[in-house]
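Newbie here. two chains, one complex. Structure please?
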Amino acid sequence: MRIGFDIAQTCGPKAGCGWVADCLAREFLRVSPQHQYIWYHHFDSWINPNTDGGPVFDARVATPFHGVSADDARAQWQTIRRTGQMPGRPDVVHAHSFNAPKIKGARLVFTAYDVSFWAHPEFTTDLNRLTCQRGVLDALAHADGFYFISEHARSEFDRMTGGWLQESRRPTLVHYLAPRHAAPSEGWRKGLDGPWLSVGSLEPRKNLDFLLDAYRIYAEKSRIVRPLRMVGGSGWMRESLLGRISRWPHRGSVFYAGYVPDSDLLDEYRAAFGLTFPSHYEGFGLPVLEAMQQHTPVICGRVASLPEVGGDAAIYADIVDPEKFAAAMLALEEDEATYRRRSAASVAQSSKFTWEGLVGALEAFYARLVSPEGSPQFPPPESGPPVKLAPTLPLPVPPLTTFSTSAMLPAKDSVLDIDRLMERIRSDVALRRTPPPPKVSPKPVPRYTLGTLLRFGLDGNAAPFLGSGWSHPEPEFRWTDGSMAEILLTFDRPMPDLVLSFSAIPMRVNETESQPVSLAWNGSLVGEWTVSDSKTQHTLIFATSSGDPSVARLTFRLPQAFSPLSQNMGTDTRKLGLAFREMVLRPAHELGFE
Amino acid sequence: MDRENQFVRLAVDLTPLSVGGPNGGIKPYLADTLAALGHAAPKPYELVILGSPSVREEFAPVVSPSSRFYTSDYVEPAEIASLADCLYCPLGHSRLLGSGLPTVSLIVDTLHRDHPEFLPAEQVTARENRFNEMVQHVDLFQCISTFAANRLVHHFDVSPDRIVLSSPVFQHGEAARADSAGRVRAPSFFYPANFGPHKNHETLLVAYRIYREANPVRPWPLVLMGNDDERCNYLRKVADLLGIGGGVEFVENASGDDLKEYYRSAGCLVFPSIYEGFGIPLLNAMEMGVPIVAGRRAAIPEVVGNAAHYTDVRNPQALASAMSRLASDAPLRERLVQKGRERCADGAFKQEIYRLSDAFSRAIAMKERRLA
């Protein structure tokens, strides 16, 4: 396989996303040397001032952007956006920087770290929020697969997009990250006189003000009073936090070590007595895992992805009440045996997370996307909303007794498929500026008695109710002609909530195709279907307050109707959509709807 | 010259105004304001309006018949100085700033300083240059919210003495309410706003998807009114991508009775904008009895007070919950409408025009003092 990696965020100081890209690129090279790799040092909108600082590579890696200036990279990416052609002819491209360009000839995998920019906008800047939002929306359009670093990240993504992932059936992979450092050698014994450690940049999401509150309480009560060491790059809360730390007037001591290189971070983890990690929100929580690997127990909140990482080994404390967090710190100090047990459990938990595991899972995921059978089946965004099975209604609908099913439908379709009932009950939608009242038809609109079966064929009774958009009747049915077909009805009494059912055959070139159709009732959308066979379709129509309740104009919209001539299927020039057989409207309460 | 009993000749530079809707809510406000200035007491104004032929078409029917229009591409600053006593620049900047006339400029907001991330870099630079020029040449600034005034002071060190607060206010009052009363409202979520990034349409579309997933039965449609531009096309694609294309209607900017018709059929004004110097749709919604969902951002709380259901409009889940709540809670809607109505103080419009008119007099006096 030719695997392309977006490593744009590895150039320069690395935050979480940069580390993921860095580790994956290196670990793939180590674990799976049989592939060919292409590393992109600039990726779409992530253009670096220079490409130094990325992971070390050798002759096995193609690096089309290494050493390319920012201006040249911008120009090259403009071409890529226009042509979709990625340098190095990759089979799969894995994007790690919240960019999802439209590419051709390769599958795009998008790492969705977290959606904190939506869930907790108060923890980020507007610029970052806009960038991430744009990246995620682009990914919905262009990504062939989504990689999540925790189950929480996946479920949050789905929650924040209203179930889009499930509905789109886009392939997803959830797999945890792994620690970046080596585990201590056999027999290494952790000292107990280390400081409390905090790892994380100085930004509100990390809840470091709270940590200082908790530490202050801890220091007042502790017999030992360990110092608190804070490690992490500066964030946008730097000023206020540093101000607090530099003038620490209370018992105990707080040191801010700033950004430390990766190798020094290992020493910090090893030396620490415990990691205090009261973060509000994480996509994964790498410091939790890396501390545990170095025998260092972790105190954190039971929030976001942290329980997935910490398992039974982490100590979960309240991250709102500093008294409670301080109590957890004091408890860990109380008794050495308990501390040792917690430390051993931490090591055991961390050993479940390996790069080999992640690389293997991603490899299989890429292979699935690249293989012809595994290529994702979803409609391109241009083709309109994905069809979704709406939840079935609480009460089953009895079969349509008024339908002469044997005459109307082939035998195999004669059993009503309850599961397909009432797909997409959605009303009051679009199609209007102000709800247009039904236009007065030049001919009087005939009265329709609820429950009457309208038959559309030659001997049928539907003709008086038909408005524009219909062809001539044929023995068993009548085609719609054009992208819209209308039915006009008056009722002898104000209309109650109704169930409309109809059976029709879709116009299609081959059996795998279908006809999308929507139905507007006096201008309000009341149903949408994708008709792929002659099964009976249903929708619930509520007694609407718009327009005259005793008159109804039913507008079937058939945006993909076409003429047989246009598809070389004959000489017929009519624009055919559905061949209607029968239709009936019945009061909903008769069918068991409340 | 004894001006007490004379018309003041006011040059109004509408040259930067675009045809149709791209300027957003400012145009209807200007139409009302310029119409009122023609009849302002104690001093009516004779308007000399500069702008494209389309400006003439749009404004001639509403302003006083004595107004004159200059539609030529270029008018010499010196020529303007001979035609008018004072220059009003409702679009802020004007190439006539150097004309020597006493000048009042309307500053809607300082978006490029508060949120440069919402604008292309070249626009930030261009706006910055225009602001610097205005700070140098303009005698008085009109701001339409205290929020915008504070930002102007904060960013450009403009002395508060140079700022006049004159805001859009309710003016259709009883007539609009009488119009909207008694109609059956087929509910929709309505958001009239051009598609600038700070208007936050993406988050709204994601929220609307969540709302529809949570309310599969009879969800309210979403009507987005704005200028049909590239961003609009992009947002259409996002809506389709999210599978809500059928529930979202994009409509071109409307004005006058057509616009009122949209408000009348709105069940809720959903206003997720991140940044507003004022937010004229908020005013229209309160006036027309439409409940509001919005964020506590920029000038919005100043305009709406407690007549909105506030939420964090950056969080699609929170926004969706607010929309669900509004759509399902009729008593809440009624309460919000009631509070909105309480904010509609009839007669306030005259006062605001008086303040603006006073600004012109002050600018003229300042100039005369300088000359003396």
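Moderator note: Residues 126-142 of chain A form the longest helix (17 residues). DSSP finds 15 helices and 24 strands in chain A. Thread marked as resolved.
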